[in-house]
């Protein structure tokens, strides 16, 4: 038996780390922060153990907790004091994100990214104002007998809202904006709005390949953004499609996106890898709430070691090609990295 090739030689202690191909650092991670204008105290999120909604007055303290772990960037999600069909509180100067931004950016050194979407702000939970869409039994849109109206998000009206949201976020101090609604033309619209308002320096992290996924459930509880009817299949991507993801990312690159995000992460490692191979832009991945919650649930049953599977999950996302990882494990994993790397 020829044993010239013995890969195990490089798996021994002390040399194993020297030949490790992938490393994870706290600066690779982005921590989500939920700011709630409807509460005066922190509210635990039952489906996401260890996470909570914080009132505006606690937003600075919450971000300082993140910074203490070595994580330098946060993504803000807001729960407004009121909702309406158009989601107008999303661009209010005294809105929840705008108020939190002013405090966080003036009192901390965090790099602050804002989620730019309307689902938390509309009373129907969809990602923009609605319009009626007429469909015949044969699937061809037309107005006449046999057609039944259905509601869908009005793409172009949503673009107008996004212009107002991003400029309000930039005025309040956002370091980066992250549109997540999967509207056609959203990156071009946002880039033009920011540039026109004098915010050429504010980058865009586009949710470029966002799938219509069953892994979002806990987040919709956390952000109070579940749709009140139907689903988001008419604007989020089909989980069966990979070539479509490349088209979406290419369009966003052409329109001026600075960072490309894939969401979710673990079920779409092939998409992350493909985007990394094809594009020179930084690639982000969103390790979403369902990915987080299922590991917690298994750990509570004693079936998995939570610390180990959390770290392995994030390493796999990094290995697939992600430069940045938005994850609910950010703080817990970051605190372990100095000793583990």
Largest sheet: 10 strands, mixed
Based on CA inertia axes, which overall geometry fits?
globular
Count every helix, treating DSSP H or I runs of 4 or more residues as helices: 10
| Structural class determined from secondary elements | alpha/beta
Q: Average pLDDT across residues?
A: 90
| The CATH H-level homologous superfamily | Aldolase class I
CATH architecture: Alpha-Beta Barrel
Low-confidence stretches: none
End-to-end separation in angstroms reads 36 Å
CATH class (first level) name: Alpha Beta
In the CATH hierarchy, the third-tier topology is known as: TIM Barrel
Strand percentage lies at 15-25%
Tell me the domain tally. Answer: 1
Gyration radius over CA: 21 Å
The string of secondary-structure elements, in order, is EEEHEHEEEHEHEHHEHEHHEH
Please tally the β strands and state the result.
Answer: 12
Active site: 210, 263
Catalytic activity: 2 5-aminolevulinate = porphobilinogen + 2 H2O + H(+)
InterPro entries: ALAD, ALAD_AS, Aldolase_TIM
Family: Belongs to the ALAD family.
């Amino acid at each position: 038996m020829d044993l010239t090739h013995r890969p195990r030689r490089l798996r021994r202690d002390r040399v194993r780390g020297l030949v490790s191909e992938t490393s994870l650092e706290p600066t690779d991670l982005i921590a989500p922060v939920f700011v709630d204008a409807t509460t005066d105290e922190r509210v635990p999120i039952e489906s996401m153990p260890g996470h909570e909604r914080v009132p505006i007055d606690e937003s600075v303290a919450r971000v300082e907790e993140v910074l203490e772990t070595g994580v330098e960037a946060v993504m803000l999600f807001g729960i407004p004091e009121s909702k309406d069909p158009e989601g107008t509180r999303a661009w209010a100067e005294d809105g929840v994100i705008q108020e939190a931004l002013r405090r966080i950016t003036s009192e901390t050194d965090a790099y602050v990214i804002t989620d730019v979407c309307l689902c938390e702000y509309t009373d129907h939970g969809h990602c923009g104002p609605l319009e009626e869409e007429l469909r015949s039994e044969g699937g061809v849109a037309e107005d006449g007998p046999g057609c039944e109206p259905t509601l869908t998000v009005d793409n172009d009206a949503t673009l107008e809202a996004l212009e107002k949201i991003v400029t309000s976020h930039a005025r309040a101090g956002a370091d980066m904006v992250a549109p997540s609604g999967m509207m056609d033309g959203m990156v071009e619209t946002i880039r033009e709005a920011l540039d026109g308002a004098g915010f050429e320096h504010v980058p865009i992290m586009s949710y470029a390949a966002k799938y219509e996924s069953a892994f979002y459930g806990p987040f919709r509880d956390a952000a109070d953004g579940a749709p009140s009817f139907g689903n988001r299949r008419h604007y989020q991507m089909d989980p069966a499609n990979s070539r479509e993801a490349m088209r979406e990312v290419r369009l966003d690159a052409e329109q001026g996106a600075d960072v490309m995000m894939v969401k979710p992460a673990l079920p779409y490692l092939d998409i992350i890898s493909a985007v990394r191979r094809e594009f020179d832009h930084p690639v982000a991945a969103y390790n979403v709430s369902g990915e987080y919650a299922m590991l917690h649930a298994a750990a509570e049953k004693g079936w998995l070691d939570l610390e180990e599977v959390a770290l392995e999950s994030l390493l796999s996302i990094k290995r697939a090609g992600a430069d940045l990882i938005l994850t609910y494990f950010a703080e817990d994993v970051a605190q372990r990295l100095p000793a583990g790397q």
